[in-house]
Every structure is written in C-alpha cells, then in structure tokens.
Amino acid sequence: MTATLDLLRTRRSVPPPLLDGPGPTVDEMQTLLTLAARVPDHGKLAPWRFIVIAGEARARVGEIIAAAFAADNPEAGPDRLDQERRRLQHAPVVVAIVSRAGPHVKIPEWEQVLSAGAVSMNLVVAANAMGYATSWLTEWHAYDRRVLDALGLAPQERLAGYVHIGKGREIPSDRPRPALADIVTTL
C-alpha cells in the first residue's frame, strides 16, 4: 500500500515535449485500457471510449489539427503550423478519451461525464504505476468539430482529453498544491 500512496503523493504531469519513447507495448496498452475502464459507471453504460493514436497515426492526426488551425489562422507561418502539426507526436502513444454521455432514464448525464473523467485519471495513474510519464490535456483541438469529426466522434460525443504516454526526459518539480484548509469543509 505504501508504494501506491507514494505514487499518488508524487505523481507529476510531464509536458508532451518532454516525453520520449519507448511507449507502452500492445500488451501493456491492453492492460492500461483495461485498468482505465475500471471506474464507477452507474448503469454499466460505459459512457466513454478510447481512441489510441500511435505510430504514423500521430502524424496523420497532426495534419488534421494543422489544417484546422491554418483555416482559422491564415496568417500563421510555417513554424506555427509545424507546432500544431506536431502536437501529438512528442509522446509515442496518445489516447483520446471520448465522452459518450447523454440523456438516460436513470443515470444523470453529469454522472456519465464524471465517469469519463475517472477513466482519464485511471489511465494516467495506471501508466505512471507502469513506469511511464503522462500528461492529460485538452487544448483547442479537443473542442474543434473538424478535428473531432476526423477522429470519428459522433455529433453528441465530446473529448474528455488526450492522455500522452511515454518516458519522461525530465520530471518537473511539483507545483504548489492547494492548502487543505482552503478546500475542505467539515460538517
């Protein structure tokens, strides 16, 4: 139990530009996604799904991101477009977590959204426990319908974020955390 608590106590996000390979193997990805899916899920709806973006797919999705950015920012120069193109190419594996929350007779949509967040955090913690570094991000392209359509999201689906997984070249120092006195109310 001490190792688990130490992991939770010391976990850090590593910015994608500081992530390198190797990434998880196919078998490790199966384990990570299985562990990620073990979250509260009232009604057994699985109101989320995964899109694994690895290998050449990272460049293909990057072209889609760059094209959407260029369409909205015609003044963007080649360096800026290259930055957008490489967004998903730093880490060897990026997992997009898709929230499929929607109206249900018994399960509030909010609980379904929370379940997608829990899946995302489980993936982060499981990857960290396996020795990988991670970063869970959204950024503008997680909300851009052109990018979402290209990833195959249905109109009612949303992206809970991208979890970048790799080996950290360096682990950032801890950021200030909120004081418990500021965030805890005891009744």
Brief rundown of the structure:
The protein is of the alpha+beta class.
Written account of the structure:
The model has no long low-confidence stretch (mean pLDDT 95). The protein has 187 residues and is α+β, with helices and mostly antiparallel strands. Strands 1, 2, 3, 4 and 5 form a five-stranded antiparallel sheet that branches. It has helices at residues 2-10, 26-36, 57-72, 78-85, 109-129, 145-150, 180-183, and strands spanning 19-20, 48-54, 93-99, 133-137, 158-168. It is globular and about 55 Å long.
Low-confidence stretches: none
Main sheet: strands, sense, barrel? 5 strands, antiparallel
> End-to-end distance, in Å?
29 Å
Mean pLDDT: 95
Alpha-carbon Rg, integer: 18 Å
Number of strands: 5
What portion of residues is helical?
40-55%
Describe the global form: globular
Strand proportion: 15-25%
H/E order of the elements? Answer: HEHEHHEHEHEH
Class by SSE composition: alpha+beta
Number of helical regions: 7
